[in-house]
Amino acid sequence: MSDVLKQLDTVLESRKAESADSSYVASLYAKGIEKILKKIGEEANETIMAAKDLEHANNSENKDHLVYEIADLWFHTMVLLASQNLSSEDITAELQRRFGLSGLDEKASRDQ
User: Fold this and answer.
1) N or C: which end of the chain has fewer CB atoms below 10 A?
2) Which domains are delineated in the chain?
3) Using one digit for the tens of pLDDT, what is the confidence trace for 25-61?
4) Which of these, 30, 6, 3, lies nearest to 87 by C-alpha position?
């Protein structure tokens, strides 16, 4: 895996010290968790729509659009992580922990 997630973690952390007038991410931090969550919801919806478009017309333009929307969703999710003093490493550690577990068994353990 590339280091792009670690690089983004570093950039997102540095934006905490910047003015909301000079940085999009700093402006999200300044507006608070509700604004960040709203952006994630918007990006999730756009991802869903792009996936539906790809299902109906499987072509390279639609694939590119889906990748673009998922990148936006990941980006805004990482903004949320940084706002809560978490990072991509927290997520990759959790994903690593799940390797070797049956997805069905893992889900069942959460439902109890």
Assistant:
1) C
2) 4-110 (1.10.287.1080)
3) 999 999 999 999 999 999 999 999 999 999 888 778 8
4) 6
